[in-house]
């Protein structure tokens, strides 16, 4: 039997989960107030020492809470699933949204009046002192204009902390925070006082010691609180639990863990403390099954059932972390995304299979909890046991959008090509959405920017103009092109220009973080910051990268191929006709779409007429009739010809159907971006590396892109990641995957993202499971990097839109993360609904 099914979670896990599902997230003010007071008090100190004093004050004074039923304790906020504000990065956008954040389109948060008042008081200190203000001062006006024009954005780290890292959990499990303090003291004692960098290193080491002493005190506060609650507890079982929690918090993370329960508590303290120090998201647990399993294997006193419940509790706690962003960024990260990527399986550093019993328990925990966090991933290679892959496919069939699946055979050599050693590359984990890195050795700056390749295409088609403004270089009007070589030359020039601006913006933000917000607590958990005596933000990691990600690749590829095919090869269109059609949005208002132009009754009547006429229903007949009706009612002059032009463009073969001549155009366009990015270096001494994944920015930044030569209307969503355009991969899942595999995933070493959506019936039974496993193996054999799945039918999603209260536990894959479907903005929901429903 391939199908094993899943056990039921305990009542405790169901209660903890229900609490998270029912609460509304709040913005809290305590951290902002404490950080501001510390900054004011220690203005005279160097940046690294000020940061140490900030974290010291926060760890000593941030309110703590132990919630009912918890076995793993430690919270960033008093309210469940809520967030604190970190004004040292930015604050203006928060103040602007005091009245609107509760009601905004994406990721609303409640800000109580008293909280707003406390934040307003704290914010008075911060004008001109934040990382965002310093970063902005480094950027040229031309770069800011390109960002405003929708070419790219660096809002992720411009407004918040960097995050996007996996730290050395295993080191803390082994030696505790006391061991780290001892290591730092040893390095401090060996410093050469004659060297010019002595003072900076000495300050860094002192900052780490202060931070870790405060972190120990923070854990001890939880020990005291658990003991206090135990004294007042009447339920004997809960009293024993609280007493053990108190004992655990006195032991860890100050000392090494001796039991699996203590190991789980250590893991969570590290995770929550990193969130408290900085507002960076994508603090990713990495290879949880590798560093945690030795403590499970050595714990002879624990039952399998209780061990599973502890893992489930860790999964619950990961969903307690939340983050608010400015209104625009919230749309790009829709679904309260925090991207805590936890990875199992793969290889050991020696190249042996790494699967262990905890790998399977993590899958069981995912089935039990069924919440968006962790962003659960598995690694697959030629030595992966079939049982492991089939078990992962069973989890996928639950419809949670996890696990995402990654290919060792691509990622390991891609990392080696960036200078990562073979041993470290084999030990890779996944950060945030889809970004590979050597854990606890890397400052990857993944998600450093969103880059809109489709917008660069639009600018190329308009001789460097966007919205009537000359944003890019003058490269020639499209009507003057004599062939595709002229297009590619212009596209390359525009790409060179805008990638240079992208790098300027990223490096501006990078410099600002290094100067104003070095993070001593985080830095001590990444190699080799202690050895180098340097914070992570100043280049202390062994491997340093900057990873901007692109989206709109499929739209660009399909558009370029449409020009090649319909203009230069078959002559069905002239460049002048195409230019006119694009400028008029194919005869539609800028915010319209064909679907919106016909009522539901009109569509139903149209379908019935086709059935009566033809005796059957054909998709091509429906499309033809839609265009005919739209053309007959369109008002603008020439709209019938525009509709005809659009029909020609839309009938051009598309990326996603295993057609070489089409797919290789998309590959070429993606490579132009990737190769331009990798020419640059960052202030930490590392290389830029490209990724191709969108979060949900393909919806948001699609609004900045006009009509395209693939027939897409202005402002419509773009394709997500390396996936084909919605509904265009009609030749089946294997053909679609084959197209995606033709992109050069090795050069896009910051990660690529491929979404597929399956009908549940397609994967049912053992036959469905075998087909599913074969699809993954086949795609990986062709050198695809990553794939993830939604297993849900359209009707379920539509019902959830109409009745969100009855579908709060419906979790879907958005992009590189999963989210509750009902909390997504409607336009993001519509984008997910529109994806092709595959079947075998």
Automatic annotation (TrEMBL):
Any one Pfam family match given in the protein's UniProt record, by short name:
Gly_radical
Question: Where, per the database record, does this protein carry Glycine radical?
Answer: 816
Q: Mind listing the UniProt keywords for this protein, alphabetically?
A: Lyase, Organic radical
Renumbered to this chain, region (Disordered) spans 716-736
Residue span(s) of domain Glycine radical: 720-840
Looking at the record, the residues that make up the PFL domain are 11-713
InterPro entries with a match to the protein in the record: Form_AcTrfase_GR_CS, Gly_radical, GRE, PFL_dom
* Highest taxon of source: Bacteria
* Protein name from the UniProt record: Glycyl radical diol dehydratase GrpM
The species this protein belongs to is Erwinia aeris
Traced from the root, the source organism's taxonomic lineage reads: Bacteria, Pseudomonadati, Pseudomonadota, Gammaproteobacteria, Enterobacterales
Corresponding gene? grpM
């Amino acid at each position: 039997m391939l199908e094993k099914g899943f056990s039921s979670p305990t009542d405790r896990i169901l209660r903890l989960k229900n609490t998270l599902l029912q609460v509304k997230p709040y913005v809290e003010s305590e951290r902002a107030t404490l950080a501001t007071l510390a900054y004011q008090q220690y203005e005279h100190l160097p940046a690294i020492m000020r940061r140490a004093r900030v974290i010291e004050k926060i760890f000593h004074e941030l309110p703590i809470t132990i919630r009912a039923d918890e076995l793993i304790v430690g919270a960033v906020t008093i309210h469940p699933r809520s967030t604190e504000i970190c004004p040292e990065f930015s604050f203006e956008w928060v103040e602007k949204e005091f009245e609107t954040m509760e009601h905004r389109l994406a990721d609303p948060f409640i800000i109580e009046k008293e909280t707003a008042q406390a934040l307003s008081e704290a914010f008075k200190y911060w004008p001109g002192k934040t990382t965002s203000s310093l970063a902005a001062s480094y950027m040229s006006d031309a770069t800011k204009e390109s960002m405003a024009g929708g070419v790219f954005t660096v809002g992720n780290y411009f407004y918040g902390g960097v995050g996007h890292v996996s730290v050395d959990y295993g080191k803390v499990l082994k030696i505790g925070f006391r061991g780290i303090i001892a290591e730092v003291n040893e390095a401090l004692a060996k410093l050469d006082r004659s060297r010019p960098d002595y003072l900076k290193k000495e300050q860094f080491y002192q900052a780490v010691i202060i931070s870790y002493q405060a972190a120990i005190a923070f854990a001890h506060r939880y020990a005291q609180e658990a003991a206090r609650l135990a004294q007042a507890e009447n339920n004997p079982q809960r009293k024993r639990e609280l007493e053990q929690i108190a004992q655990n918090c006195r032991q860890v993370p100050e000392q090494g863990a001796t039991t699996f329960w203590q190991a789980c508590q250590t893991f969570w303290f590290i995770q929550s403390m990193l969130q408290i120090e900085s507002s960076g998201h994508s603090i990713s647990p990495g290879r949880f099954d590798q560093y945690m399993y030795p403590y499970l294997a050595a714990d002879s006193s624990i039952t399998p059932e209780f061990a599973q419940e502890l893992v489930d509790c860790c999964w619950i706690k990961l969903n307690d972390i939340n983050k608010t962003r400015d209104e625009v960024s919230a749309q790009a990260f829709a679904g309260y995304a925090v991207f805590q990527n936890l990875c199992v399986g793969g290889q050991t550093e020696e190249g042996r299979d790494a699967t262990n019993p905890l790998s399977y328990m993590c899958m069981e925990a995912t089935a039990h909890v069924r919440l968006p966090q962790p962003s659960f991933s598995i690694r697959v290679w030629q030595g992966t046991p079939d049982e492991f892959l089939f078990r992962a496919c069973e989890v996928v069939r639950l419809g949670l959008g996890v696990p995402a699946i990654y290919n060792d055979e691509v990622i390991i050599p891609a990392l080696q090509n960036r200078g990562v050693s073979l041993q470290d590359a084999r030990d890779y984990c996944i950060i945030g959405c889809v970004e590979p890195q050597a854990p606890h050795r890397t400052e990857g700056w993944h998600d450093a920017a969103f880059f809109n390749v489709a917008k660069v295409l639009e600018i190329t088609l308009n001789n460097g103009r966007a919205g009537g403004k000359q944003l890019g270089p003058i490269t020639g009007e499209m009507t003057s092109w004599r062939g595709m070589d002229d297009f590619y030359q212009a596209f390359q020039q525009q790409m060179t220009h805008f990638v240079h601006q992208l790098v300027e913006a990223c490096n501006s933000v990078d410099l600002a973080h290094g100067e104003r917000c070095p993070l001593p607590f985080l830095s001590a958990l990444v190699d080799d910051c202690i050895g180098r005596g340097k914070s992570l933000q100043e280049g202390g990691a062994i491997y340093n990268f900057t990873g901007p990600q692109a989206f709109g690749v499929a739209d660009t590829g399909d558009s370029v191929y449409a020009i090649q095919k319909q203009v230069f090869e078959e002559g069905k269109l002239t460049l002048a006709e195409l230019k006119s059609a694009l400028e008029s949005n194919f005869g539609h208002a800028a915010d319209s779409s064909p679907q919106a132009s016909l009522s539901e009754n009109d569509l139903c009547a149209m379908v019935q007429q086709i059935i009566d006429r033809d005796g059957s229903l054909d998709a091509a007949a429906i499309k033809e009739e839609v265009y005919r009706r739209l053309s007959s009612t369109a008002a603008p002059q020439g709209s019938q010809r525009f509709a005809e032009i659009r029909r020609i463009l839309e009938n051009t073969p598309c990326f996603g159907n295993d057609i070489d001549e089409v797919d290789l155009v998309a590959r070429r366009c993606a490579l132009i971006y990737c190769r331009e990015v990798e020419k640059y270096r960052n202030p930490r001494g590392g290389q830029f590396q490209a990724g191709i994944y969108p979060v949900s920015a393909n919806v948001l930044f699609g609004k900045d892109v006009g009509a395209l030569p693939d027939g897409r209307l202005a402002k419509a969503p773009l394709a997500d990641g390396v996936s084909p355009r919605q509904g265009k991969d009609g030749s089946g899942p294997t053909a679609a995957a084959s197209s995606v595999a033709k992109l050069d995933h090795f050069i896009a070493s910051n990660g690529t993202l491929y979404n597929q959506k399956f009908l549940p019936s397609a994967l049912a039974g053992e036959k469905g499971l075998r087909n599913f496993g074969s699809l993954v193996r086949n795609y990986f054999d062709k050198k695809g990097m990553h794939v993830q799945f939604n297993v849900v039918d359209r009707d379920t999603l539509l019902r959830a839109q109409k009745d969100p209260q009855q579908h709060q536990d419906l979790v879907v894959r958005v992009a590189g993360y999963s989210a509750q479907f009902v909390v997504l903005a409607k336009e993001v929901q519509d984008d997910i609904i529109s994806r092709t429903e595959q079947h075998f």
